[in-house]
Amino acid sequence: MAEIELEHVTKRFADGTVAVDDFDVRIADGEFIILVGPSGCGKSTTLNMIAGLEDISDGELRIDGVRMNDKAPRDRDIAMVFQSYALYPHMTVRENIAFPLKLAKLDRKAIDEKVEHAAGLLDLTPYLDRKPGALSGGQRQRVAMGRAIVRSPKAFLMDEPLSNLDAKLRVQMRTSISRLQKSLGTTTVYVTHDQTEAMTLGDRIVLMRAGLIQQVGPPQELYDHPRNLFVAGFIGSPA
Ligand code: ADP
Ligand code: MG
Predict the structure, then answer these.
(1) Residues near 122 by Cβ (< 8 Å), separated by ≥ 6?
(2) What are the residues whose beta carbons fall under 8 Å from the beta carbon of 166, sequence distance 6 or more?
(3) Which one, of 29, 34, 37, lies nearest residue 5 by Cα?
(4) Is the CB of 11 under 6 A from ligand 1?
(5) What's the whole-number average pLDDT of the chain?
(6) pLDDT per position as a tens digit, 151-169
(7) Which regions span the lipid bilayer (predicted)?
(8) Atom of ligand 1 nearest to the CA of 37
(9) CA nearest to 115, candidates 79, 152, 82, 141
(10) Entry pTM
(11) Are 124 and 93 in contact (CB under 8 A)?
């Protein structure tokens, strides 16, 4: 469980691009927050700074009150799920999910228990002995999530995890992600450019445009009280 605070966080790339400009949001312990906005608005860069995959140019990132700016990704205890599944094709579902636990040198029994628990939560129990090549896209994405949840990280970061799936599967996966997040209660930052996903999935939305936060709040609040025309247009509210 984790509280994630971004205080006046800015990312300036070497070429001068300011991808994220003064991002200032406190994400509560257990919250499911959505970063949404058009392509290029700085969503992935924000997520990558939280994960430690990009340096922070200015401002401070704290997890549970501890400054993280200079901590390596592995010391942040955060799991990231990308849109590309990055499963190991030669390993079974069981071995794929178990992989982070093997790295952490857990014993065989503990690994089996955790893998089976994660598989149960993700409806993957019947597929544990299959290889990724014999799974559907949605099942593969659930294996990737299994690998993220199996070591009980403090937080999940997801970067457009459903964008490779067809529309029908996306709707199904939305439901399973939402259910999973609620049952685990793990702080989650979820990136999407899809308004519907943003409106249905999270506790709060952070809507960005060109590196700048436009509005932060529960979906209903952005819909009922958009702060500007961009928010109104993006959310599709009648304002
Ligand atoms: P999003 O995920 O919302 O589509 P990104 O965070 O990937 O947006 O990118 C935000 C902005 O930063 C874009 O203008 C992008 O071109 C720029 N950008 C991303 N990575 C780099 C980089 N390594 N060097 C320079 N500019 C970058
Ligand atoms: Mg992106």
Answers:
(1) 142, 143, 145, 146, 149, 176, 180
(2) 137
(3) 29
(4) no
(5) 93
(6) 899 999 999 988 888 888 8
(7) none
(8) 3
(9) 152
(10) 0.92
(11) yes
pLDDT digits (tens, 9 = 90+) for 73-104: 989 999 988 766 689 999 999 999 999 999 88
Distance CA 6, CA 61 (A): 5
Which residue is it, tokens 């994960």?
51
DSSP codes, 108-131: HHHHHHHHHHHHHHTT-GGGTTS-
Pocket mutation for ligand 1, best pick of 11, 43, 45, 212 (most atoms within 8 Å of C-beta)? 45
Residue type, 127: Y
Pocket test for ligand 1, best of 13, 53, 82, 160 (most atoms within 8 A of CB): 13
Is any ligand 1 atom within 6 A of the Cβ of residue 186?
Answer: no
Residue 31 tokens read as 């919250």
